């Protein structure tokens, strides 16, 4: 995570301090966010870890418990924060987030509008993309979700880059203060077509809109509305396939006089050098790869459109 000071300068301090947020990594599917406090301890199946032992260490350190067990202390990057944050709503994951940031052409200094905030997964990555001089204004109609999101952005050191507002964008549109100022807009709404007229007023000429919808019927209706003032309308579905790559052993097999093998699988068929004696082919370590059983399927459709230039 990029830490930004009040002067909006990126900080490269990579050492853990009292009060910092760290991601405690046990394994790839078991991580948690912990606020460092010198008088506190973390207790898990590996033993007791004193926070005081963490202070002054660089992020990425391997620390040990009283029993000799260990965990890793990682920086709360947007990629890791997405995996450990509290799910107040359904969230976007890495494949969709990276695609959105690239296609919206978000760079440092951009002004980005977002609705709705939800759990703040995308917002966190947007903030890093616009740092250190840009800003993200995100809105949610649910007041308690907005309050929780503000607290999360403070914990992750992004409060100078993100402003959270409570507003029904479908019914009221974006505030007039942003007319003609937004470089890009992201919508995650059940009826995004209701917000499209407001988005057209907020975007700079040639600015880009992205709308996330889980159902294709929402996409169809949104595209109908976009055709009035937008061009280059495209819809994508991002499917990520994860592979497991690990070392394993092939089962052994036997070759008979004719060189044929039994029913057990083996890496290769092998005859004895003399062609008369049966010889056992021992299993040997090999690297095997297969699709992960936990691969995510459909999350939603991403519709992009560019505001048509008037000139």
TrEMBL record:
Major place of residence: nucleus
Swiss-Prot/TrEMBL GO biological process terms: tRNA methylation
Family statement drawn from the similarity comment of this UniProt entry: Belongs to the class I-like SAM-binding methyltransferase superfamily. TRM61 family.
GO CC terms in record: nucleus; tRNA (m1A) methyltransferase complex
SUPFAM superfamilies given in the database record: S-adenosyl-L-methionine-dependent methyltransferases
Residue ranges occupied by any tRNA (adenine(58)-N(1))-methyltransferase catalytic subunit TRM61 C-terminal domain in the UniProt entry: 69-306
Compartment(s): Nucleus
Alphabetic keyword roster: Methyltransferase, Nucleus, S-adenosyl-L-methionine, Transferase, tRNA processing
Binding site for S-adenosyl-L-methionine: 119-122, 140, 168, 188
InterPro entries, per database record: SAM-dependent_MTases_sf, TRM61_C, tRNA_MeTrfase_Gcd14
Disordered as annotated region, ranges: 251-292
Catalytic activity annotation: adenosine(58) in tRNA + S-adenosyl-L-methionine = N(1)-methyladenosine(58) in tRNA + S-adenosyl-L-homocysteine + H(+)
GO MF terms, alphabetically ordered: tRNA (adenine(58)-N1)-methyltransferase activity
Name of the protein: tRNA (adenine(58)-N(1))-methyltransferase
Lineage top rank: taxon: Eukaryota
EC identifiers of the protein: 2.1.1.220
Top-level EC class: transferase
